[in-house]
Structures are given as C-alpha cells and as structure tokens.
Structure to design on (224 residues):
C-alpha cells in the first residue's frame, strides 16, 4: 500500500482514525507493509512511528504539532483492561538554555497541547506489542481550567531552570505536568544554566503529563 498522504481536513483525519479502531498494531503494520522490528521491546518508538505513518503525520521531530497544517498533535495513550492509562504521556523536550523572553503562549508545550488527537491503545503488559489493539481515537482541547493548570506547571518549573535550580525539579513537582530526565543513557548530556549562572551539564529533560490528568481526559470522553 502506498504511503498515505497527509489528511487535508480534520474530517479526513478522523475517518482514518475510525478505520484503524479495533485493529492490532501488527494488522495495521501488515496492511501498510510497515517494517516490524524483531525486538519490539527495544524499539519503543516503533508504535508511534507506525501510527504517524498510517495517519499521514508530517512533523517528524520538529517542535510543531504532528499534523502541522491542521494544528493537531497525535498522542498515543497505552491503557490497561480497566481503561486507565498505564504510564505518563510524553509531550516535548524541555528547553534548558536561551530562556530569555520565553512565555507559555510561545512554548512548544502550548503548541502541542492546544489540539490533541488521543489514540488509546490496549497495552496491558501481558499483551505482545504487535497484538496491542487500537481504541477509539478522539479530539481534545484543554478546558480553561486545564489550560491554567498546564500553564502554571510550565511557568513554575521553567522559572527554576532559569534560576539555575534544575536539581530541585523532580517528578513530584507539577499538578498535572512533570519534568523528568529523557535520555537513552547517562552519557547523553546537554548544557543547562548552573546555580551560579554559568553553564554546566545535565541530562536532557522532557515534559510529561501525569497519569491522573490523562485519566481525567479519558473519563470525560468515555464517561468512565
């Protein structure tokens, strides 16, 4: 099957989402002749790459929504048999330098979370990756309260980074969004503002939505 073109409208995107609901990742990969690695547990990004390919996402690794021309970000969310999220949801990389003038309104997090296509995937640990089933995808935009929560978490944690206090940031901070190290290994260091204002080295960080927040989003959609 030919590589799908980017969807021209939100309606076209949602038609594609409906077409893959109920299928397993393995079935979708076979339908689109998408290469499946032998050791999926080592290829954590495969699932996202497959779904971006099938749905026609265009952003790649750019700091913009996955369906850039539609302004929609794709977020897969692994759920258990109880319909609850199994893990936090990665949003984007945390900027650690050149923070002057940066605001919530101009942030990558705001761009990514303004309009999200959530794709639940039944991914209980007993299910092999290729046998994981796609659920009913849906579009979401943060409510006024949710936007306020996200902005407050972003601003509080970015202020600590700007003040050279990144070591004070842990997964416990943030009401709905946390900052955590994001690196394949402990040697992948990057620049950061140190305690005395000079540059030092640290692990790259990522923004993650906390499980209670995504649980709330699913509950609002499906009435759980």
């Amino acid at each position: 099957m030919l590589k799908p073109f980017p969807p021209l409208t939100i309606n076209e995107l949602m038609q594609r989402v409906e077409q893959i609901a109920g299928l397993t990742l393995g079935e979708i990969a076979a339908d689109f002749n998408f290469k499946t690695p032998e050791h999926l547990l080592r290829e954590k990004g495969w699932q996202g790459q497959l779904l971006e390919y099938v749905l026609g996402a265009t952003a790649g690794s750019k700091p913009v929504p996955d369906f850039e021309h539609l302004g929609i970000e794709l977020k897969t969310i692994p759920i258990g048999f109880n319909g609850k999220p199994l893990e936090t949801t990665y949003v984007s990389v945390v900027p650690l330098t050149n923070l002057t003038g940066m605001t919530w309104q101009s942030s990558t997090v705001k761009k990514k979370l303004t309009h999200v296509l959530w794709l639940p995937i039944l991914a209980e640990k007993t299910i092999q990756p290729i046998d994981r089933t796609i659920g009913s995808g849906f579009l979401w935009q943060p409510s006024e309260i949710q936007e306020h929560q996200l902005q407050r978490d972003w601003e509080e944690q970015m202020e600590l980074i700007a003040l050279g206090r990144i070591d004070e940031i842990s997964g416990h901070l943030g009401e709905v969004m946390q900052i955590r190290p994001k690196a394949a290994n402990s040697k992948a260091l990057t620049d950061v503002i140190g305690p005395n204002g000079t540059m030092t080295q640290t692990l790259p960080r990522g923004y993650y939505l906390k499980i209670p927040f995504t649980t709330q989003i699913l509950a609002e959609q499906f009435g759980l």
In short: The chain has one domain: 10-222. The chain has a mean pLDDT of 90.
